[in-house]
Amino acid sequence: MEMSRSALLFSALLLFLTYTTAPASSAAAAPANKYIKTSCTMTTYPLVCEQSLSAYAKTIQNNPQLLASIALQVSLNRTKVAQTFMNRLGKFKGLKPRQYGAIHDCKEEVEDSLDRVSRSCDEMKDLGRAKGNEFSFRMSNVETWVSAALTDETTCMDGFAGKGMDGKIKESVRAQVVAVARVTSNALALVNNFAAKHKN
């Protein structure tokens, strides 16, 4: 009975995973702005970049700061989804000690990443009032925090190393981590591009 209940709970988590990682229909249907499409070519995952940002084309227009800011917000939102998933997974009954430990460590990495991306979003909002050295300082903060957030996300899977950890739980965590890491990597590329343009 307990195994059946556990299997049912894990199936529910997988459904949550499928729902939260699927692109929103409105974003998929919205035609990608030419500026977004061109800007996304400099990212590591251009298709993910276009899909995640095309819904905001009217807001972004041709503004590199808005492009970077919204890319960060997308990363923040996706990290929150991963955090919710990890919290739920950590309460799953029947976990092996190593699985529980890996999930706990990964959850901490995701929380650290969430904090850094959140601070980056706030810093980007304040850039409009910054000039000269203050702008450079704030921009450097954003680049450093987003880079650190990406490291946190990729480090998350370290605890699942080894064949003994293979299985549905590992794969579900990997799917969450990959989804977050891709939008964060893209956000970092767009932030770096915005910073480079300002320097020039």
Automatic annotation (TrEMBL):
Residue ranges of domain Pectinesterase inhibitor in the record: 31-190
Keywords linked to the UniProt accession: Signal
GO function terms (MF aspect): pectinesterase inhibitor activity
InterPro entries the UniProt entry points to: Invertase/methylesterase_inhib, Pectinesterase_inhib_dom, PME_Inhibitor
Superkingdom, natural source: Eukaryota
Signal peptide coordinates: 1-23
Metal-binding among keywords: no
Membrane spanning residue stretches: none
Protein name as it appears in the record: PMEI domain-containing protein
Organism per entry: Heracleum sosnowskyi
